[in-house]
Design a protein that fits this description.
Layout: H1 10-30, H2 34-44, H3 51-66, E1 74-76, H4 95-106, H5 112-124, E2 135-141, H6 148-162, E3 166-171, H7 175-188, E4 196-198, H8 213-217, E5 224-229, H9 233-244, H10 248-252, E6 256-261, H11 279-289, E7 294-300, H12 304-307, E8 322-325, E9 332-333, H13 335-338, E10 359-362, H14 364-369, H15 376-380, H16 388-406, E11 413-418, H17 424-446, H18 448-462, H19 477-490, E12 491-496, E13 513-518, E14 531-536, H20 543-549, E15 554-555, E16 564-568, H21 571-590, H22 599-602, E17 606-607, E18 625-627, E19 635-637, E20 640-641, H23 645-658, E21 665-666, E22 673-680, H24 681-690, H25 698-701, H26 703-716, E23 721-727, H27 734-738, E24 740-743, E25 746-749, E26 764-765, H28 792-802, E27 807-814, E28 838-844, E29 858-860
Parallel strand pairs: 2-7, 2-8, 3-5, 3-6, 4-5, 6-7, 10-16, 11-13, 11-14, 12-13, 14-16, 23-27
Antiparallel strand pairs: 1-8, 9-15, 17-29, 18-29, 19-28, 20-26, 21-22, 22-23, 24-25, 27-28
Helix pairs in contact: 1-2, 1-3, 2-3, 4-6, 5-6, 9-11, 16-18, 16-19, 17-18, 17-19, 23-24, 24-26
Domain Putative endonuclease Z1: 389-610
Protein name: Z1 domain protein
Organism: Propionibacterium acidifaciens F0233
């Protein structure tokens, strides 16, 4: 095939089209860039087509896509936009947006420039209101307690300036959340009563059947309609009936914007059988069907259920046109930050940060005391004494609120207590809190020094554990003590649950210091202003519910050092895992942003928990199935190990057999790493079969999974070569303090790896022993010095291009003398009795072109063969032992 001339032969044109289609198919099936897909096609069809011809085809394909607007944080079905995603100029500086922006500026709100950019981008993805019949469905993925309401308020303002005439906000399942959302929108956005016609109000006035909708939606009406509707079957049916009474031609000319807040709750079909449809999902489908012109935008921080909807069901609300991700701003505290999962570069000589010391573990006996009985009659009289950990949490809440006042803060301070979803125990606990606070107040008023002693002890134990934020100082005890009586006098205790009459409303003119006791109503969407202390023993079996329960996530500007979270033992580890799940999900979406993928094609994968946690309710996963992922370029590591001497000796023998007859050579001059090149695949398989894995390291220990891995190696990597690296410790004095381990004739200085809290000799959990940069350990750094290599996705690309198809195994000798030198709360010293020859390893599988080899423990609705890391934990240890 030759480059085309002025008159191209029809056969040549057909051939060019076939090559173009093959390149784009590879982009989708192999999930690679156009350039890399073209390289693969050129290599595979080298006998039939020249590389120059392929390059010309790629240039043509890129030119076709060049006219499309690029959005950094979006996955878009560009065919739905016909190459145009420009927002009307009316929305750039329209009256509603300018008024909303002015309100934020008067409040000195943070992140206004980012809000302006992202709301503009989301609005550019909406259906154009001046095109009757245009419809769009999209998803905006935010973070828990990160300002989603503020964001969709900005989108509403811009959309109305564009020409949208009817705004419907769907706001959760509970009255308190609907009322809070309505109050906030009335205060910040739906202000002009001559411009906005309110179909609902904050005073428990949800949507009723509205006969006036016909006149209001007519073309002669100048008002803009707004409604905040609870996701309740009756209320939604009222909305459906009201819309159905308006002729379609009028609806067609009245563009409607639906904002679905907490869209993963109730919106997705929750029936386990795929052919059945749950009640709320059914009525929402019918409402969407009644909107011939408009946009549906789902907002949620936990879109697990949304991305597992059936993408091919046009009637459902799968976000088929766009998925847009919001990035949390500076100062945001999410699961990754709170539970110390910030990425750590273990090759750095500085220790990796585990995050601020905010989390306190509730003893099991205290959690047990607060657990109500399962029988209703027994729950009615359930009234336990507050355990010591709960009293400690209340004391710190009082102290932290006093510190904030001593710093000059005059706003809200809140404490959340969430121990059960049963409502009756909440009222008994409120009475306990009222009695406790009253006793504390009397002790301070009538026995000042003795009464203050308990708070001084709390202040002494806690105030220095987290550094004060920039620009804030920690007041002296005397200044704090001066504020304590006022705090104790101001404390309110309210119950906010499905049957209480209390409602958690924050009036800007009346600062509140409040202890809030609740259950389900506090676990979704509700904002607790000035949340300082959380006491949390209730668990959940699903990712989305557990993440949403974490109301402590969010922006705590100016008092980050005072935030404290008491959680039941084990919940901290669940949230640590969910941080990884969330990172996976965001990385998955981020990996195909600005690409050729549409939301339907992405087939986002969600990592499965190895134990009790489910992704979401079983009904919402009716379209999901286990997907298996190519092992090509994937990495794994043994982060759970049996430290007993018998097991460590067996594994040392397995390593010796692997390196038998080999001569390891220094990887770098003067370094403490040694390499053996040219090991064949059968030797690697023998090593995997001979190594003694801990049963909880299921990616290796499960016979089926290990068998599938070996089958993959034999089928796709049998002819590949492998490099083995012995990773030693290059830090000065390491040989004396941590010891050496003779391996294959080399005295390897041992590494310091401290296990997670709760580890035992029989089960050492390190969470990670491999550095992210170790993926490239056998490649000369000079070879990729000019290539992007900061992220693991970039390092995967480097390995595919420069490793020559080799696999990599790294051996890590771990010292039994490892100490938790920085006294990190999530780590511990190596327990006594661990074998002196403890060895772990990591493996990076060869990059191969075949995409049909499968393996996995993720779920998806439309799986793609992808190069991903399987079973990779995050690193958070304070390692100082790498080169």
């Amino acid at each position: 095939m030759q480059p085309s001339g002025d008159a191209e032969d029809p056969d040549m044109s057909d051939e060019r089209d076939r090559i173009s289609a093959e390149i784009m198919n590879r982009v989708i099936s192999d999930r690679v860039s156009i350039d890399e897909a073209a390289d693969r096609v050129a290599h595979e069809y080298r006998r039939f087509v020249s590389r120059e011809a392929v390059r010309q085809i790629v240039t043509s394909l890129k030119s076709e896509m060049a006219g499309n607007r690029v959005l950094r944080h979006a996955v878009i079905d560009e065919s739905a936009y016909q190459g145009s995603m420009d927002m009307p100029t009316s929305a750039m500086s329209g009256a509603q947006w300018c008024r909303y922006l002015d309100m934020l500026q008067r409040k000195n709100a943070f992140g206004i420039d980012e809000l302006s950019r992202t709301t503009e981008e989301v609005c550019s993805l909406l259906a154009l209101p001046n095109q009757p019949g245009a419809r769009r469905k999209g998803l905006v993925m935010g973070n828990v307690q990160s300002g989603k309401t503020r964001h969709f308020s900005g989108v509403i303002a811009r959309a109305v300036d564009m020409g949208y005439r009817f705004v419907i906000v769907l706001s959760g399942l509970y009255n308190n959340l609907r009322e809070q959302t309505q109050s906030r929108l009335d205060r910040d956005l739906f202000v002009d009563r001559e411009f906005w016609y309110h179909l609902t109000s904050a005073e428990n006035n949800d949507f009723d059947r509205r006969s006036e909708l016909l006149a209001l939606m007519g073309s002669h009406s100048d008002v803009r309609l707004c409604a905040v509707v609870k996701k309740n079957k009756t209320r939604l049916k009222n909305l459906e009936a009201s819309l159905r009474n308006v002729p379609e031609e009028i609806r067609r000319k009245c563009p409607i914007l639906i904002i679905d807040d907490e869209a993963d709750q109730a919106t997705p079909n929750s029936e386990k059988e795929k052919k059945k449809i749950s009640a709320i999902n059914a009525v929402m489908r019918r409402i969407w069907d009644l909107i011939p012109s408009g946009s549906y935008v789902a907002y949620t921080a936990t879109p697990f259920a949304n991305v597992l909807m059936d993408p091919d069901d046009e009637a459902d609300l799968f976000p088929s046109d766009f998925v847009y991700t919001l990035t949390a701003g500076d100062g945001y505290l999410g699961a990754e930050q709170v539970f110390g999962l910030a990425d750590a570069d273990v090759d750095d000589s500085e220790p990796a940060a585990e995050g601020p010391d905010l989390v306190r573990i509730i003893p099991a006996k205290d959690s047990w005391v607060l657990k109500p009985p399962s029988k209703k009659l027994q729950r009615e009289s359930f009234d336990p004494e507050p355990p010591s950990s709960l009293i400690s949490a209340v004391r710190w809440f009082v102290v932290a609120s006093a510190v904030r006042r001593a710093r000059g803060y005059a706003g809200h301070s809140s404490m959340l207590v969430h121990t059960t979803h049963y409502t009756a125990p909440h009222f008994a606990m409120r009475e306990r809190f009222l009695t406790l606070v009253q006793r504390m107040r009397r002790e301070v008023e009538f026995h000042r020094e003795a009464g203050l002693a308990q708070f001084y002890e709390s202040w002494r134990n806690e105030h220095a554990r987290v550094a004060a934020p920039a620009g804030r100082s920690t007041p002296e005890w005397d200044a704090v003590a001066e504020q304590l009586p006022g705090v104790l006098r101001n404390i309110e205790v309210i119950v906010d649950n499905g049957v209480s009459e209390d409602r958690l409303n924050y009036d800007a003119g009346r600062p509140r210091t409040v202890i809030v006791v609740g259950g389900g109503t506090l676990s979704r969407g509700l904002t607790l202003e000035g949340l300082v202390v959380s006491y949390f023993t209730r668990s959940s079996n699903t990712y989305d519910t557990l993440m949403q329960m974490g109301r402590w996530f969010g922006y705590r500007s100016g008092y980050e050092d005072l935030l404290r979270i008491w959680v039941a033992d084990g919940l901290d580890r669940d949230y640590a895992f969910l941080a990884l799940v969330e990172k996976d999900l965001r990385d998955e979406i981020r990996s195909v942003e600005d690409s050729e993928y549409t939301p339907r094609q992405v087939g986002v994968k969600v990592r499965c928990h190895p134990g009790r946690l489910e992704i979401t309710s079983a009904g919402k996963m009716a379209n999901a199935r286990l997907v298996r992922l190519s092992m090509s370029n994937a990495r794994q590591q043994t982060f759970i190990m049996d430290g007993r001497p018998d097991a460590t000796r067996r594994n040392l023998r397995a390593v010796e057999r692997l390196l038998s007859g080999c001569e390891p050579r220094p990887l770098r001059a003067g370094g403490r790493r040694w390499i053996v090149r040219g090991i064949d695949t059968r030797a690697i398989i023998g090593f995997l079969q001979g190594y003694s894995f801990h049963p909880d390291q299921r990616i290796f220990s499960d016979p089926d999974l290990r068998g599938a891995t070996i089958d993959w190696l034999m089928k796709y990597a049998q002819e590949r070569s492998w490099n083995i690296i012995l990773a030693g410790n290059s830090m000065p004095g390491a040989m004396d303090s941590l010891g050496v381990l003779p391996v294959a004739g080399i005295r390897v200085p041992m590494l310091r790896r401290t296990p997670l809290r709760g580890s035992t000799v029989e089960k050492l959990n390190f969470k990670a022993i491999m550095s992210s940069a170790d993926r490239l350990a056998d490649i000369e750094p000079e070879a990729y010095a000019d290539m992007p290599n900061a992220t693991d996705a970039q390092r995967m690309v480097i390995r595919r291009r420069l490793a020559g198809g080799d696999g990599l195994v790294m051996i890590y000798p771990i010292s039994h003398r490892s100490k938790n030198k920085l006294e990190l709360t999530t780590r511990m010293d190596m327990p006594q009795g661990v074998g002196e020859d403890l060895l772990g390893f990591s493996i990076v599988y060869p990059a191969v072109d075949h995409s049909d080899a499968e393996y996995g423990n993720f779920v998806s609705v439309k799986p793609l063969a992808a190069d991903v890391d399987v079973g990779e934990p995050e690193e958070d240890d304070d390692w100082e032992d790498e080169e």
